[in-house]
Structures are given as C-alpha cells and as structure tokens.
Design goal:
Elements: H1 2-17, H2 49-59, H3 80-88, H4 101-117, E1 127-131, H5 134-155, E2 165-169, H6 174-182, E3 186-190, H7 201-205, E4 212-218, H8 230-244, E5 250-253, H9 261-264, E6 277-283, E7 295-299, E8 311-313, E9 320-322, H10 332-369, E10 373-375, E11 384-389, H11 399-407, E12 415-417, E13 426-431, H12 438-459
Parallel strand pairs: 2-3, 2-4, 4-5, 5-6
Antiparallel strand pairs: 1-7, 6-7, 8-9, 10-11, 11-13, 12-13
Helix pairs in contact: 3-10, 4-10, 5-6, 10-12
The structure holds pyridoxal-5'-phosphate.
Pyridoxal-5'-phosphate (PLP) binds near residues 133, 134, 175, 218 and 221.
Length: about 475
C-alpha cells in the first residue's frame, strides 16, 4: 500500500538524517526539517525547544494575517507592556483565588469600573464577573433570568414553569441559539425584514408573554453592526409591567458596542439607566482592546442572580463562590483588561474610539463613492461597515466573489447572507479595529477600485481582456 511504502521511506529518511545536528549548520540544517512533523502519535523522543518553536511557527505562516483580518472583532494588537504583563501571569489559574488573592482583588476593580461605565446606580448593589468571552457571559445571564423567572412564579404559587422563552432578533449571535438549545428554553426569534435589520419595540410586543424570561437586545449586531431599539423596548416593558404586572428583564448583548458607545456617545441610553436593563455583557477582547479570552457580565443588582446558581468550593483553600460555566482559566487577560483601563483611562479609550469612527466613516465614504455598493447604515454608530452590491451589478458577480478576490491579497472580509426574512440579501462586513489606520483604509480602497473596474466594465459591456482594464476576474 502506498501509505506503508511511504512509512518505510520516512523511516529510512529518519535513519539517514539522524546524524544531522545543529553544530555546523542552522536550525534548518538539522534532521527535523527534512522529516515529517509528528501528526498522529506523541513522538517517542522530543526535540530541542528552538526546533519545536520554529516548526510550529513556520507552519502557522499559512494562517491569515490577523492585522488584515477585518472579519473578526477580536483584538490583534496590544502594547509591549501589556504583552509583558500577560507573559508574566500566564501560569496563574484565575480560579485559585486563595493562592492569587491580588488577582481576585484586581478582578473586582474591573467589575467596579465597568458597572460605573454602564451607569449602574449608586444605590444598587451591582455584581459582576469575568468570563471567557461574551458567549459565556450571555449564557450565565440568561440562566440567571431563567432562575429568577421560575422563582418569581413559584412565589406567586404558579406550578407550571416548564415553558420559558426568550425573545430576540433574528440577527442574533449563535450563542443565543446555543443557550436556548443547551438550557431548554424556547427561542422566539423575531424575523428581520428586507429593509429593517434590528429588533423594534413593535416586533417585541407580538412575541412576549408571561413565560418570557428576558428580552435580548443587541448594541452592535453581529450581522450589520446596528443597534436595536433598546430605549423603546424598555418603554414597552414598563407599560406591560403597569398593565399586566409582568416584570420582564432586558439583557443587553453589548459584546461589541459596550466599549464603544460609552466613549463616543455617552448620552445615548442603552444601559442600567433604563429600568428593565438588569444585565449586560461585553467582550473585553473586542473593543475592550484585550487579546482573546476575556468577557464581562454585570448585573445591575445582586438580587437578579439567584443564590442557587452560585457554587461555593473549598478545595482550593478558603471559601470560593463561583458563577461560571467552566472552572480553570488564565488570569492574564483579566489583568490585561485592568492594564488597559489604567493605561488609557476614559480619555485614552475615547481617543481610540473616535479614531476608529473617523476611519470607519472615511472608508464608508470611499466605498460609497465607488458606485457599486450600497451601505446598510447611513450614519455609522459603531466602527462596523456593512455593504451590499448595488442591484444593477448583481448579475456580474457577488459579494462572495469579492470576498475571495480580496483574500488573494491577504484581506479577510467575510461575505454572508442575512438571517430570515432578509436572507436574500448578501453583504460584506468590515470591522475597523484599533490598528487599522487611514493608510490601511486607502490600501483597501486601492484594491476595491480594481474590483469596481471589473463591475463597471461588465456593465458597460467592455472587453475585459483589453490592457486598459486591470486583469481581474470575479468568480
Ligand atoms: C453581538 C455578539 N454577541 C456575542 C458574541 C460572542 O462573543 P464572544 O466571541 O466574546 O464569545 C459576538 C461575537 O462576535 C457578538 O458579535
């Protein structure tokens, strides 16, 4: 068989190469670089640390360049001092609060700062925790609301507590669907419309009832970066409370907007200033400007988190209350979050977010001027641009082809269709992050201009093989 012949050949190669050491050559002259890398079994013998590093490092060159990744919201750059702090604390398990009490204290400080940033009233006893990201935070928040809903009904003597539901727009992140499935809650997804991609109070009204454990609203949706009608939904729930006695909480998914809006538009009411907003999640690793691995969940008042969901463990020394889906996790990103809060302060975050908005608005203006795209949002509220091909160009190519074409130059910009009932619309989404400068925006536009030529030439029925047109094909 071909595979056994190959194995034999590999074994011979291994023998022949055994004497190749690094004494008289570079690392690439050693035997490890002309042998297959172990893939299926742990190798009997290890290898020098520099070799293992170089092998993996080189293989990872095949990954996309994180700095050209305009698909992901996640931070790809931090300052040297933050990198140092992260490296120094990589060995600390966050859960070992008894062993690393100061890390726990710093965690508490971040919770304080975020509760304040989200306008938790002084008189309320807010409560919060770090998580691995917004997904864990959302699941924990919704679990808390499910428990409270049941407790409230039990207090009223209601026995039937088997059909809880959550109401949320169809443009929701997959974690909401996961929560519904994993924790057996009915998911009431409010469909989008051809020309409205957010959750409105009017739409919510039709879906809520006495079994609604929470209404989910999004500050910066994953699909379009738009913002649901949070204040109006709050008003609706206030009215329902007065009319029907139902006290339905709002959970705000502020994964991407929670670290942007407070700095660029502090007057905008979306947070604990609204009476029904009881919990908020935010991704520290998005516009909190920390590398992947940290999110935050804040409750307006500790009373919204049932004691039943808090576990106390004593096997790490001391009594440790935990509210999380996992147990062990690194401390570094929590500390890196604190670093950013100290280092940047309100002014530093504001400056960065203003720059991001300026770059995003500039890029949107330039994209609009190409004449082949429509922008979904007239005035951007977050540094997220969503565009679609103008109708008249759809017959010559698609956003999927454009996305592939951009990838050839390293740009990572995803194309996808919107959720029901706007699934006929396919878009490109560009997330502007801290290290994306005006110069980078210009370089992206340069590439887009070539793409525009392709569409314009097609529309004008011009011969694309003529030299005057860039050699480009949208497939
Ligand atoms: C609106 C929204 N909610 C939740 C999430 C999940 O966040 P995380 O990746 O931090 O778990 C995302 C991720 O993009 C998001 O955009």
């Amino acid at each position: 068989m071909l595979s056994s012949n190959l194995n034999k050949k590999e074994r011979n190669d291994e023998k022949n190469n055994e004497n190749k050491t690094s004494e008289n050559t570079t690392i690439y002259g050693t035997r490890y670089f002309c042998q297959p890398i172990p893939k299926f079994e742990i190798p009997e013998d290890g290898m020098p640390s520099k070799t293992a590093y170089r092998l993996i490092h080189d293989e990872l060159n095949l990954d996309g360049n994180p700095n050209l990744n305009l698909a992901s919201f996640v931070t790809t750059w931090m300052e040297e001092e933050a990198d140092k702090l992260i490296a120094e604390n990589n060995g600390k398990n966050f859960i070992d609060n008894d062993e690393y009490p100061q890390t726990g204290i710093i965690h508490g400080r971040v919770v304080n700062m975020l509760a304040k940033l989200f306008n938790a009233p002084e008189e309320e006893n807010y409560l919060g925790t770090s998580t691995i990201g917004s997904s864990e935070a959302i699941m924990l928040a919704l679990l808390a609301h499910k428990w409270k809903w049941r407790e409230n009904r039990e207090d009223k003597g209601i026995k039937d507590n088997n059909n809880p539901n959550i109401v949320i727009g169809a443009d929701v992140h997959v974690v909401w669907e996961k929560f519904a499935k994993y924790f057996d809650v009915e998911l009431r997804l409010v469909p989008m419309e051809e020309d409205c991609y957010i959750l409105t109070a009017e739409k919510v009204k039709k879906h809520i009832d006495e079994n609604t454990i929470a209404v989910g609203v999004v500050l910066g949706t994953t699909f379009t970066g738009q913002i649901d009608e949070i204040e109006k939904i709050n008003e609706l729930l206030e009215n329902i409370k007065i009319e029907k006695g139902l006290d339905i909480p709002i959970h705000v998914d502020a994964a991407s907007g929670g670290f942007v809006i407070p700095f660029i538009n502090p007057e905008f009411k979306w947070d604990f200033r609204l009476s029904h907003v009881r919990s908020i999640n935010v991704s520290g690793h998005k516009y909190g400007l920390v590398y992947p691995g940290v999110g935050w969940l804040i409750f307006k008042n500790e009373k919204y988190l049932s004691k039943d969901l808090i576990f106390n463990v004593n096997y790490l020394g001391g009594e440790l209350p935990t509210f999380s889906l996992n147990f062990s996790k690194g401390s570094s990103m929590v500390l890196a979050q604190y670093y950013n809060l100290l280092r940047l302060g309100m002014k530093g975050y504001k400056q960065i977010m203003e720059n991001l908005m300026e770059t995003a608005q500039y890029l949107q203006y330039r994209l609009d001027a190409l004449g082949i795209f429509d922008c979904l949002e007239g005035k951007l509220k977050l540094p997220i641009i969503t565009i679609k091909l103008k109708k008249e160009f759809e017959k010559y190519g698609s956003v999927f082809g454009i996305s592939r074409k951009l990838r050839e130059n390293g740009w990572i910009i995803p194309a996808y269709t919107l959720p029901p009932n706007a699934e006929n619309m396919a878009v490109l989404r560009i997330v502007i992050k801290e290290n994306f400068s005006r110069t980078m925006a210009d370089l992206l536009i340069k590439r887009m201009i070539e793409i525009k030529y392709y569409f314009k030439a097609k529309a004008d029925n011009k011969d694309l093989s003529k030299k005057s047109y860039p050699q480009i094909n949208i497939y």
